[in-house]
Amino acid sequence: MRWSEIPRDAKAYMIYHTLIAPGLITWTLFPLYLMMTGYSILEVGAFFTVVNIASIPLTYIFGRLFNRWDIKKGLIAIDILDGIAYVMYGLAKGAIAPLMLFGGKLIDKLSTLLYPLYQAYEQVIYPEDKYEEIFAWHLRLPEIATLVSFPIMGYLLGYVYNKPKHYRLTFLFFGLFSVVTVTYLWLFLPSVGKEERISPEGFTFKAGEFKRLIAFETLLALAWGLAPEFILINYVVFVLHKTVFELTLIAVACSLMRITGTYASERVPKGRGFHAIAVGMFLNAFYALVMAFAPPFWLALVVYAIGDFGNALWFPFYRSWLFKLIPKEKTTEFHAAISSYRRVLGLITPLLAGFLASLHPTLPYGASLGGFIAAGLFLLWIAKRK
């Protein structure tokens, strides 16, 4: 699919994700900031676990409400909440710092309760007969923004402005930048209310197929949940004694391979989507296996990039599979239910990951290895049945 063939509204939505991509560096900076200011790896894991517990029931409630409300307003709410959270991180100084960090993270987590709205919006706004092709572009454009912005920010925050106070200023900047993204959403994205979400004639909900998707979700959530990003941050910065710059180099290598993976996904023959997802799982298993052996930095960079090539390869086919099983009039409710299910699975994984890393920095990767292998084998079984 050429860029010129993509509908205007879908292009506007992709450009929005390109605008917010540089701000995702805050996802790396926040756990690193906690560790730099005295939190242990086990305490960081416990911190994320406590916040996850509070969010489970609210995710599904919000999803049901947005079955009737305009989804675009939910996307605007996400950016407003993120902006408030980042400003609170930036003001986390002195005696009030722990309160501001925890309060900011709770607000940040509140915004993630609305993240299923992204998938719901995509299901409606993207052409139904072009899901696989359009998700290649959906991945590609934000990765280009990451390639340009992350090395610059990583170098500055790693070697020039590398004190906690500089990280607080970075949080403040991205908090205020949310004014730009909220304005863009309001002006350029179309509304998607109840009337835009009507399933096409002939749609049949396939309960058995949906159960298989949930089984795959279980394996995938456990595999990724047992080796979250703060495990990589701890290993690179506090074991290998690198900086946030090296973390952004890994992110850049991953972006390059994700972009390459989008082109590879476009060359997967029709009807081979489940095989592509399985191959992606086995590439993730390879990354987890190598990381479990505590590799040097250059090898960690390589295997993370290989794993993300696998992610880009399987992502369009997974999203297409997911969207074809969900009725449009219930899209926000279904995506929120799946998200809540992931959160239930993620109740203990951050704490468990932190505990395993306190025993050995790369032990969490060994735990996630089995999940990726099982997920790959499961997808091959599904492909064989079809």
From TrEMBL:
Tell whether Membrane is among the UniProt keywords.
Answer: yes
Output one GO MF annotation: transmembrane transporter activity
Keywords assigned? Membrane, Transmembrane, Transmembrane helix
Kindly list the residue ranges recorded as spanning the membrane.
Answer: 12-34, 40-63, 144-161, 167-192, 273-291, 297-319, 340-359, 365-383
Q: Pfam families annotated for this entry?
A: MFS_1
Origin superkingdom = Archaea
Sorted alphabetically, which PANTHER family does this protein's record hold? C-METHYLTRANSFERASE, MAJOR FACILITATOR SUPERFAMILY TRANSPORTER
Q: What is this protein called?
A: MFS transporter
Which species does this protein come from?
Answer: Thermococcus profundus
